Known about the structure:
The chain has 504 residues and is an all-alpha fold. The longest helix is centred in the middle third of the chain and has 31 residues, at 311-341. Helix 4 runs parallel beside helix 8 (141-155) and helix 13 (243-253) crosses helix 23. Residues 54-65, 71-75 and 478-504 have low confidence and may be disordered. The chain is 72% helix and 0% strand.
Amino acid sequence: MDVERPKSVSFLCSIRVAVAFVGFLGMIAHYSQKISVGIALVCMVNHSAIATSQNSLAKSFTQTDLDCPSLNNSVKIEGPFPWTKNIQGIILGGYFWGYLITEVPGGYLAGRYGARFIFGGAMIIAGLFSVVIPWGAHLHWGIFWFLRLIVGLAHGVIWPSMAVIMSHWAPPSERGKLVGFMNAGAQIGNVLTLSIGGLMCSWDFAGGWPLIYYSTGILGLIWGIFWIIFYADSPGDQRCISRAEKEYILETTQQQLSNHTKNEFQAPWKAILTSPACWALFIVHTCNNWGTYTFLTSIPKYMAEVLKFDIKSNGLLSSLPYIMFWFNINLSGAVADMLIRKKTLTRTQTRKLFNVLGNLVPAIFVVGLAFMTCKIKYIAVALLTIGVTFTGCCYGGGFMLTANDVAPAYAGIIFGISNTFATLPGILSPYVVGLLTEKDSNNWRYVFFICAAVYVIGMIVFLFIGSGDVQPWAVTDTKKSTIEEEAVPLAEPVVTSLSKESKE
């Protein structure tokens, strides 16, 4: 049951909001590194060299080329690397192979040791390897792939760490606002990297495109160090928090965390892996990510190949959907909390509603994209923006909160498993896009049809078996923990027990 916030405990001027804000900045740094290769590849690749090597006699102009020839005054960047679309797809997928490996271990490590050093250390490592990517790319695309693999390995622990952070710092009645706000940093990272990265490509300083990797790498390094200094794994260990806020957070989160063990691999694995609620999360997360990763890695290519935007316009317009995505995450988080708090809908009904909005609406607009051409390219940008915007409903009020809803004590592990499955689209989608569009850019319509179908599958599964309620197997130790708490004074031990647990 949700505990109402005392009037003496502020929301806006609070440490829990400060934690969410610093986490928000961390997600900006995380996603700026994650998406950097998508915009950088557009200006790293020598497209003219590829066309020449593929025998221009066998290559004919597409209808798109005839309808929308490149303008003479457009900014066209030709990079130094003659990498085919298949190689580009492999490079884009390299990150996600690393990301896939560390998801579940990341959930365990964050749950066992806390997210302070796990999240901060991951960003420091990723920052260091991002800075040396331009050097590796000049040696061989295989080394570029390997460096992105290492960045992915580091980043794999981040989303499970986020689930653990919010388990300790977000009261259930404020979870949508805090989780939504922190998650929204990902979209600001996309916006900044796509828009500024497109401009960097056209600069002469340091070769242009390498600046994308230098800037995102240094940003991650700085943030990782600050996070380790600032963050505490439990409100009981935070030096600047008021006593009233500390007691409020601990009171509202301790019951749900009561059966969290020192070794999170003692979690009820059979119950987790046979739970319909968990599988609903795994499936909708994976299906939604197919669309998310298709756009995240391929929007700049679509803008260049089909809509014929130059690199400066490409970067700015590719970032537009993520500005609206960010806005909708925050809005949907606040609305979802209000619906639950006022008992307009149950938590489960709220999660299902926002998952329908975050999957069905994007599917409809993605189908519309399949029929767009460069002659009506601004309508295509509008459809793309609306589709991506509604995906934010899943992040603010939908499945992104489900791990904390169904099993707060094991949120890191469950989200780690979910994100492991949900990373597979990041590996497969760029490769599928490369295969379909290698010889004919008109095949982008099939990319969009596949996206729409996968969106709908995820939505239907969650509608039938999804849940937003704490599962019985996740609260089996509640009685035992209650007896132990009644044997000692109430005020101090609550803080002490959680504080010790977070240090172990």
